[in-house]
Automatic annotation (TrEMBL):
This is Class I SAM-dependent methyltransferase. It comes from Actinoallomurus liliacearum. Keywords: Methyltransferase, Transferase. One of its GO terms (molecular function) is methyltransferase activity. GO terms for biological process: methylation. Pfam families: LCM (PF04072). Gene3D superfamilies: Vaccinia Virus protein VP39.
Length: 281
């Protein structure tokens, strides 16, 4: 049996291991709400104390339903643009490509150099359809590799909450200017969640502490996004129905009520922004 890959991350980069572990914990169930064999394969390949650090993976279904909602939007995009490009900002060890690949999509991962190097070892690129750019989502470099010719979808799953609010606004306005007509899907955290991370009060029983998440989403923040230059539409994306009385019955019912949904207790806010298309002469 080959040696497992030893990995040591902290701060924001370590969150990619939390996300991976939760998805794999759910995907390993016979009644899983998300089929993700690649995530299970990665957890098995890594030399990292997942359970000691993160616990028993009890938030697996919660995390998997978030990932499934992103998958639904990507599949919807590929139904309309089968040769389009998906740009995954801050992808971490997300294995979405293997869940949604239609055999034609072009996939661009944008990651910080440290994480890009880890992905290169565990999930090596397969040009020309799957490539990685090692830089921050806030840097211009990745935009040179984005190609909207056959349709473009931008995705930022589990990323923007780690930025300052003005950085999020600049990124959205910047994408609206460079990629008119494109769509960006992303998620955030509600204000109470953000405050707890800033106060250092989001800690597991095992001692893992979530890093600060300065950017929070509420009705006022959504209004600010809608007012940004180039933003044509912002819509909420509800988490799909899951398994059991909580995720299969109660949460879907509560998610029909916007004030409850925006509290973030039934799932983190997920949104899609459509950028204004260029005016025709």
């Amino acid at each position: 049996m080959p040696d497992r890959e030893k990995v040591a991350l902290d701060g924001v980069p370590e969150t990619l291991l939390w996300n991976l572990y939760q998805r794999a914990a759910e995907a390993g169930r016979p009644d899983a709400v998300l089929r993700d064999p690649k995530a299970v394969e990665l957890v098995d390949a890594l030399d990292y104390p997942f359970a000691d650090r993160f616990g028993a993976g009890r938030l697996g279904q919660w995390q998997a339903l978030r990932a499934r909602r992103f998958d639904q939007e990507v599949r919807r995009f590929l139904d309309e643009h089968p040769d389009g490009q998906v740009v995954a900002l801050g992808e971490g060890l997300e294995t979405q490509f293997w869940r949604v690949d239609n055999g034609r999509v072009r996939w661009l991962t944008v990651e910080l150099p440290e994480t890009a190097e880890l992905r290169a070892r565990l999930l090596p690129d397969d040009p020309p359809r799957r490539r990685t750019v090692a830089c921050s989502a806030l840097e211009e470099e990745w935009t040179r590799h984005a190609d909207p010719a056959n349709g473009l979808l931008l995705s930022a799953q589990g990323l923007l909450m780690y930025f300052e609010p003005d950085q999020v606004h600049r990124l959205l306005a910047w994408c609206a200017e460079r990629f008119p007509g494109a769509t960006m899907i992303f998620d955030g955290v509600p204000p109470w969640f953000s405050r707890r991370t800033l106060e250092g009060r989001m800690t597991t029983a095992q001692g893992y502490q979530a890093p600060p998440m300065p950017w929070a989403v509420d009705a006022a923040e959504k209004a600010r996004i809608r007012a940004l230059d180039g933003v044509a539409e912002l819509r909420d994306l509800r988490p799909p129905r899951g398994r059991g009385p909580l995720y299969g019955a109660l949460f879907p019912l509560l998610n029909r009520l916007r004030p409850i949904r925006e509290l973030g207790v039934t799932g983190l806010p997920i949104m899609a922004v459509r950028f204004a298309a260029p005016a025709h002469a």
